[in-house]
Write a structure and sequence with these properties.
Elements: E1 7-12, H1 16-22, E2 29-33, H2 43-53, E3 62-65, H3 74-84, E4 88-91, H4 98-101, E5 109-113, H5 116-120, H6 122-127, E6 131-136, H7 138-145, H8 157-169, E7 173-176, H9 185-198, E8 202-205, H10 211-218, H11 222-240, E9 246-248, E10 251-253, H12 255-273
Parallel strand pairs: 1-2, 1-8, 2-3, 3-4, 4-5, 5-6, 6-7, 7-8
Antiparallel strand pairs: 9-10
Helix pairs in contact: 9-10, 11-12
């Protein structure tokens, strides 16, 4: 199994000290941000900061969020990132599959779904060649939908589930949106739990203090790994004995349960090695 992507930390490109600190953190991937986190007057400096930072390898995959198509910084951002050798590009406000197929960017692409049109076209976007996954952009999406803030994200549940459905149907990874209040760890933990329940593979983050909670919420605990091993052992034992039915803890075990257990075990092992 490839490295899990439970936690993806945004780091503003115009903050070189924050970029250097990110090298010491335990997130599964870092997103060096040239878009929303950087004011227009700092765009050029941020691009040079990111270029310089990429000369030294990180301990985790590095993605770069470039500025939106049609912006004056778009082409310079993409050229810099491609030459520097990033592990992927995060494309903001993707609304159509053509936005990810026409540029021929030659690196894995992460399409941000941040608008109603993006949600409606998410299946085609996710299925496009080169797309590694979809990232929910809840802040812009909520604004576009004219929703009101809600602690359970109820107004956004349809859109969030649509993003998960589109990504999973295409065999790609869905990544949950950021949680804005860095002073509310309990709220962040609840939203991580909700995101995991909806089917997201991981979460984008805006603060280093959110990394551990995201890794725990979207990872597999030691106890879950042990249970997965025991279920697989029960299945294998039944097969070896020629029995057509296996049970574990009193419940019938089917192939889908074994597949899930193996997936969880692989995720746990990947997390341990990461």
């Amino acid at each position: 199994m490839t490295r899990p992507l439970r936690s993806l930390l945004y780091v503003p490109g115009d903050k070189p000290r924050a970029i250097e600190k990110a090298r010491t953190l335990g997130m599964d991937a870092v997103i060096l941000d040239l878009e929303d986190a950087v004011a227009p007057e700092h765009k050029a400096a941020a691009r040079e900061n990111v270029r310089a930072a990429l000369r030294t390898p990180f301990a985790c995959p590095v993605l770069v969020r470039v500025n939106a198509p049609g912006s004056e910084w778009e082409h310079a951002d993409r050229e810099m990132a491609l030459i520097a050798g990033v592990d992927g590009l995060v494309l903001p406000k993707v609304e159509r599959a053509q936005s990810v197929t026409e540029p021929h960017l030659r690196v894995p692409l992460w399409a941000m779904i941040e608008t109603p049109l993006g949600v409606l076209n998410a299946p085609a976007i996710a299925a496009a060649p080169g797309v590694a996954g979809l990232i929910a952009g809840a802040n812009d999406l909520a604004r576009a939908l004219r929703t009101r803030p809600h602690p359970e994200r109820t107004p956004l549940l349809y859109a969030l589930s649509a993003i998960v459905l589109a990504a999973r149907a295409a065999g790609k990874l869905p990544i949950d949106a950021v949680y804005n209040d860095v002073r509310d760890p309990d709220g962040f933990a609840r939203e991580c739990g909700q995101g995991r329940a909806l089917g997201f593979a991981g979460k984008t983050l805006i603060h280093p203090g959110q990394v551990d909670a995201a890794n725990a919420a979207f990872g597999v605990a030691d106890g879950e790994a042990e249970a997965a091993r025991a279920l697989i052992a029960a299945w294998d034992a039944a097969r070896a004995e020629g029995r057509s039915v296996a049970t574990y803890r009193g419940a019938l075990v089917e192939q889908m349960h074994v597949d899930e257990a193996r997936e969880n075990l692989a995720l746990w092992e990947a997390g341990q090695s990461g």
